[in-house]
Design a protein that fits this description.
The structure holds two protein chains of two kinds. Chain A is mainly beta. In chain A, the strands form two sheets. In chain A, strands 2, 4, 5, 6, 9, 10 and 11 form a seven-stranded mixed beta sheet that branches. In chain A, strands 1-3-8-7 form a four-stranded antiparallel beta sheet, with no helix packed on it. In chain A, a hairpin with an 8-residue loop joins strand 9 and strand 10. The relative contact order of chain A is 0.33. Helices cover about 0% and strands about 65% of the residues of chain B. Chain B is globular. Classes of the chains: A mainly beta, B mainly beta. At the A-B interface, strand 5 and strand 10 of A face strand 5, strand 9 and strand 10 of B.
C-alpha cells in the first residue's frame, strides 16, 4: 500500500471557522490531489499540486485554498467553513509517470454545523 | 470539459458475470481507469486502459474503445465481497498536466 495518511480523520466544526486538513505521503510522488466525495456527485477535484509550491484549481475550488511547501505534505484549508462543505475529503497521490495511477488516503469526514 | 456517464446502480447474483459500462466525451484523452470503493473506504485501483482492447486481470477485465468513447469493466464469478461502488475515471490534459476526472460511480449489489 502507498504510504499516504490524512489528518484528522474526523472533524466537526462550526460555520465560519477556518479548517485545515493535512495529507502526508512517504512515496516521494510528484502529484498530490484533494477531492471531495458527496452522494450523487462522486469524486470531485478541488485542487491539485504538480510540485512544491506548484498548485492548480480543480472543478470545485471555490472556498478552498491549498499549500505545498514540502514534497510530502499537501494542506487543504477551508477559509470560512460552510455547511455545504460537509463532505468526505480524500487526498490522492501519483508519480506523474505512465500510467500515473492514483493512490488514495483513508479520507477525512468533515461536518460543518 | 468532460462528460462521464455510468449507471447509478446494478444488481447481480453471486457466481454470475456483470458488465459495468462507462461512456465519456473528452478532447485530450490520455487513459481510462477503473477503481473499486467499498462503503466507508478509499477507492483502490483496479485497471488502466490507454489503447483499444481488453485488459484482463484475474476475475476482472476492462475494455476500451477510444473511437466510441466507451469502456466497460467485466467482473466474472461474482463474490459477495464484490459489492462496492465502481468508479470510472478519464484522464485528460489540463495545462501542463494530465488529470483524471471521475464519473459518479456505479453501486454494485451482489445477492446470494
Amino acid at each position: 500500500d502507498a504510504g499516504i495518511t490524512q489528518s484528522p480523520r474526523h472533524k466537526v466544526t462550526e460555520t465560519g471557522t477556518p479548517v485545515t486538513l493535512r495529507c502526508h505521503q512517504t512515496e516521494n510522488h510528484r502529484y498530490m490531489y484533494w477531492y471531495r466525495q458527496d452522494p450523487g456527485h462522486g469524486l470531485r477535484l478541488i485542487h491539485y499540486s504538480y510540485g512544491v509550491k506548484d498548485t492548480d484549481k480543480g472543478e470545485v475550488s471555490d472556498g478552498y485554498s491549498v499549500s505545498r511547501s514540502k514534497t510530502e505534505d499537501f494542506l487543504l484549508t477551508l477559509e470560512s467553513a460552510t455547511s455545504s462543505q460537509t463532505s468526505v475529503y480524500f487526498c490522492a497521490i501519483s508519480d506523474g509517470g505512465g500510467p500515473d495511477t492514483q493512490y488514495f488516503g483513508p479520507g477525512t469526514r468533515l461536518t460543518v454545523l | 470539459g468532460q462528460n462521464i456517464d455510468q449507471p447509478t446502480e446494478m444488481t447481480a447474483t453471486e457466481g454470475a458475470i456483470v458488465q459495468i459500462n462507462c461512456t465519456y466525451q473528452t478532447s485530450g484523452f490520455n487513459g481510462l481507469f477503473w477503481y473499486q470503493q467499498h462503503a466507508g473506504e478509499a477507492p483502490t485501483f483496479l485497471s488502466y486502459n490507454v489503447l483499444d482492447g481488453l485488459e484482463e486481470k484475474g476475475r476482472f477485465s476492462s475494455f476500451l474503445s477510444r473511437s466510441k468513447g466507451y469502456s466497460y469493466l467485466l467482473l466474472k464469478e461474482l463474490q459477495m465481497k464484490d459489492s462496492a461502488s465502481y468508479l470510472c475515471a478519464v484522464r485528460d490534459r489540463k495545462g501542463g498536466s494530465y488529470i483524471p476526472t471521475f464519473g459518479r460511480g456505479t453501486s454494485l449489489i451482489v445477492h446470494p
